[in-house]
Amino acid sequence: MLCLRAIRPFSWRVFHFRPFSFEPLISQMNNCTDEEQIFGLIEKNKSLLSEKQVGCALSMLWQFQKQKTSSVKNVDCVRNHPQFLTLCNLATTKMGFMSDSTLVNVLYIIQQFGIEAHDSLVEALVTEAWRRLERFDISVLSKFSSCLADQHLHYSPLMGKIADIVNRNLENIQDLRSLSVLMVSISSLISQRFQEKLVNKAELLFDTMDSSQVNTARRIVQFLRNIRYRYYPLLERCNKVFLSNMNHLDLDSISKILSLYYSLQFHSFEFILMTKKRLTEMIPLFDHPASCVKLFVALGPMAGPEEKKQLKSTILLMSEELTGQQALAVMGAMEEMESRNSRLIKKITSILHKHLDNYKPVELLRITQALTFLHFQSKELFVRLRELLLSYLKVSVIPSEISILVYALSMLPSAHLDEVRMSQIEAVLPQCDLHDLNIFAASVLRCIQYDHMYLDNIPGKQLKVLQKLDHYGHQRLQECKSLNLLWEEVKSLKGDWFADSLLEETVVTLQRLMDEINYINVAGIASFISRTNYLSTSLLDKIASVVLQQIEKIHPFAILAIILPFSTLNYDPPQWDEFFGTCIQHLNSYLSVLDPLVLVFLGYSLATLQYFPEDLLKTIFNIKFLARLDSQLELICSSLNMTVQFRLMELNRAVCLECPEYQIPWFHDRFCQQHYNKDFECILDKRRNPLPYGSHNTTLEKLPKIHLESNTQIAGSRLPPGAEKIALEFLDSRAFCRNIPHLKGKSAMKKRHLEILGYHVIQIPHFEWNSMALSTRDARMDYLRERIFGEGKS
Known about the structure:
Layout: H1 2-17, H2 23-30, H3 35-45, H4 51-66, H5 75-79, H6 82-94, H7 100-112, H8 120-132, H9 138-150, H10 157-169, H11 176-186, H12 192-205, H13 214-226, H14 232-244, H15 251-264, H16 269-282, H17 289-299, H18 305-317, H19 324-337, H20 342-354, H21 361-373, H22 379-395, H23 399-411, H24 419-428, H25 434-455, H26 460-479, H27 483-490, H28 496-512, H29 522-532, H30 537-550, H31 559-568, H32 576-587, H33 596-608, H34 614-620, H35 623-633, H36 638-658, H37 669-675, E1 680-684, H38 711-715, E2 724-731, H39 745-756, E3 759-765, H40 766-769, H41 777-789
Parallel strand pairs: 2-3
Antiparallel strand pairs: 1-2
Helix pairs in contact: 2-4, 3-4, 3-6, 4-6, 4-7, 7-8, 7-9, 9-11, 11-13, 13-14, 13-15, 15-17, 17-18, 17-19, 19-20, 19-21, 21-23, 22-23, 23-25, 24-26, 25-26, 26-28, 29-31, 30-32, 31-33, 33-36
């Protein structure tokens, strides 16, 4: 009897907290059609709710939000409802009873409703989850990692623990969806070796993924963006998922993918073409500022004239409703679109001015760059910008932030920095990487130029800072012991200071570390050499060697970048025939996949090296290909468009002159008449006397209209017996490698083509023409007579 009486109160307590059957209440929740019905059930049953019912109620509330469009979401209203607070209190008291999945799901939903990370409930849920961490299955672990990422805890010990669990259990993970979430969450704190393991695992599991899982593919691309690894095999497979689901992609998804592709510099013509069509269809669907801005940013740079006009009109109509961040996004898109719509520029600028005090330093830099590019002038705005930048600079202690602020200040109309600011720059230089040093150098050089032009004075402090920049730049290069670490710092470096002060030391460092060049970084190193125009035969030989040894691991998309320095710098490596043959063989199966622009640049690059693969040329000079190329030209900026057209013309000319047996027609007469400037030319008779200039010339833009069997037929056209055509070309510094007077590929090819056309080519290098020996007019005339007419001709 005593035993029974002792048991009864305990049983009642259990019954009070946990009703014997909670299924009917959950069923009622599942049948609710809005938040008020859920809140009604909570109010009636709050004393009886179990941990499972609390989880279900929160899940239903979030499900209702997901079903709403952004314009009708009422997150704030739900969060501030008294019964939502009841749910939060119940979650606090019952979290110990929750299953792992319910616990983490509650944390996720609470955060989605905007509960701050420092809230006691969020802290308690995170602590409880941390306690259970080792027993979480992969799906729960991935969701928990996403919650931590939303709290910006990417570098926390807890995220490090999750990374360790993933590393230990990677072989057993078979769910790519969950793995992709984890990959993004832990990407900030894992080693390169671990990154490669995750990439390989994702590639292995990719075929197990349903082809409709767009979000999984997007997260994989996001992971590659986060670790700065343009891994083509995975990017290509993810791109196929996006293409196959294009009709189901919404504006948010397309915007995210475009942003990721831009960051990775991954170009897919098919994706852009289909995206343009899909986004154009959306233009009439949106009338909310947030959606219209997102559409303007995504579609604007690739839109046709009519679509651009429509987009700009829409933004103008709702400009008064734009927030500061939306105006900033519009301004960035206008810069990319090379827009000159003065009315829109003025309107957006006025919004930026109104919100100027709310922008971060990096956003102020973006505003300054955009205003400079768009040639917008406003003394009042620039004065306020300068005040804000200086106020940030006075309190900033982070080198990267200081470099951003100084760079923005140097772009303003009055690019002057006083001694105090120069001393601040000088103080942080020992902490800077090469990227920051390069930004500081560009800024200081601008200030020196401004002071020289407008103040007629160059303060000694600026010159001292410039010397210290040189010192720390060389020191950082000399102390570098890892090619991958070096590459992260130098891959985006450009500008006069880098070229004049650090380029040679950078090449020496690359040569010292070149044993670390492999299939992963070889294309990047090759691109760097192309961009800097610095001929290092040892580096190029190493690149060729790595390609020959590891070609199977190199994706065909990377071949253009690899070939480019050899073409640009006019250099044939040892075993050049095997090297180029291997590259082309590796490309052949991808000729129908590669972007038209890439194939044009590839064909031109090979042509400069006198390499003319027939399959590639037959692919390019094809009606269907040229139609695809025309479609792509409509999507790119005007400067790149013109470059592509010139390269196609030059490739067309090279094939007609050097491979007439391919019977590819010359079809650039009209283009050349509009754009091409003739070379200076003359005709000498057999006694080296000049002949009257008439119809004897066959210049580069007027090729024979028939396919000729030999060069002699071209050379002998319309010239008197014994006469000779002379082409005189002045070569500036761009015609030569930066470090040695070695003729670059483009100029060498031009000389070759003129010779095929029957010219005797005389090239006048700038270093001879501008030398002290030719400093007078008479000396230059004597020099020209000697080069044109031969020694002793007066």
